[in-house]
Each structure stands twice: as structure tokens, then as C-alpha cells.
Amino acid sequence: MVNIILIGPPGAGKGTNAKQISNFYSIPHISTGDMFREAIKNQTPLGNLAKTYIDKGLYVPDEVTINLVKERLSCDDCKNGYLLDGFPRTLAQAEALSIIGKELNRPITHVLDIIVSEDVLINRITGRLVCKKCGAPYHIDNHKPKVEGICDLCGGELVKRVDDNADTLIERLKQYHMQTEPLINYYKNLNLVYSIDGNQELSAVFNQIKSILGEIK
Ligand code: ADP
Ligand code: ADP
Ligand code: ZN
Question: I need a labelling partner for 130 at 20 to 30 A (CA). Which of 12, 146, 160, 175 fits?
Fold first, then answer.
């Protein structure tokens, strides 16, 4: 059984690889970013709250985010493994996750740390398009859909994320360095971290991930 966390700065390739890992290992892909965007689209109280933070490049408060993930990990489809994309992002979230994992008997088995240089991230974020319907990420140069503007997976419309602009990205990178990067040491102390070279082309990154997870399928 694999219970995976994907850590990496905005644009590292978490969402892209999460889709592939989730298909290959048949485990649910749990993206807090996608969950917030869905709530924003539906204008729920959670969505309205999250939007005020996301549009500024800030993190949504821990309490809200932790409750959302706790509920999701309790679902039956997580019993044979799960993949967390973009959670935890703070030490408080990591500590809460450790308690949730124990309570549910679903502890984290792998932390994949996707490392990408900062100049590459800017190009990835400013060229990113996402599917309005299923959240799958594409790129105007690096990962074009088969039909322009249309998602290969579900036929949904491809759009730019509101927070994918140069100004917000600066704040998001700052938050990442301040709040999320320290988690890598937290998990290194637990011997759970595997470093992934996210600068490589898409298929090479996924091959490296498979070589790490492969043995335990
Ligand atoms: P990216 O793909 O750029 O890494 P995500 O789609 O994962 O971004 O998340 C988008 C935004 O949603 C984040 O910038 C943040 O505001 C919010 N968010 C997502 N996950 C979390 C989390 N675990 N804690 C706090 N805020 C989060
Ligand atoms: P994250 O979820 O970490 O923010 P995404 O998976 O959404 O990152 O990827 C960010 C952008 O970079 C997307 O436009 C995606 O198509 C592109 N991308 C992802 N991985 C690679 C890669 N290895 N090489 C080139 N482009 C990539
Ligand atoms: Zn789609």
C-alpha cells in the first residue's frame, strides 16, 4: 500500500505527475488546490473564504484545510492507498496529518520532493492552462492538448488560473520557502523523503517516480 505526499513549489509538476500516479497505481488523487477551486466555482462558504487567500497567493488557514483533508482521507476509497497533492503545506498541517494517519491506520509511506529551479517555474506557471472541468494541467509549449483549448481526458475547456500571474507567483514562492520547505526536513527525519529531479522532461520525471514506487505495487 502506498500513501503518498507530493511536495514541490508552484509549477513543480505535482498535478501533472499526480494524475499519472493516480492512474498507474489506482489510488485517489487528493488535491487541496483542486478542492478549493471546485468550492470557489460552486460559490460555497468554503470557496468564498478560500478565494480571499488564493487570489493573493496566500495559504488558506490551517484549520479549514486540515478539516477538509481529514474528511476526505476517511472515505472508503482511501483504504488501499492515496496521493496527496499540495497538502501538507505547513508544519501544523504535517503534524495534524500524522495524527489523522494514525487514527485511520493510513500513515504516510512516501514523500516525493519534486525539485525544480526557479527560472523554470516561472515559465511553467505563466504558460499553464488547466481544465475547467477536471483540473488536469497543460502547458502552452511543453504539454499541448491534442485539440487546442480542449482537455484530452474529459473534453472540458482549458483556461488560465486566476492566480497564475507573475505577481501572485512571487508571493506563492515566498510562502513556499517560508512555510512548506521546512517540511522536507520534518519528513527526512522520519526517513520518508525521495528526491525527484523535476527539471527533466515529463516522461523522465514520471519514470523516476515509478522507479521509486515500482517495487511496492
Ligand atoms: P500549485 O499548483 O501552484 O502548487 P495548488 O493548486 O496546489 O497550487 O493550490 C492553489 C492555492 O490553493 C495555493 O496557492 C493556496 O492558496 C491554496 N492551497 C492549496 N493547498 C493548500 C494547503 N495545503 N494549505 C493552504 N493553502 C492551500
Ligand atoms: P504544480 O501542480 O506543481 O503546480 P503542474 O503539474 O500544474 O504543477 O505543472 C505546472 C506547469 O508545468 C503545467 O503547465 C505543466 O503542463 C507543466 N509541466 C509539468 N511538468 C513538466 C515537465 N517535467 N516539463 C515541462 N513542463 C512541465
Ligand atoms: Zn479535463
Answer: 175
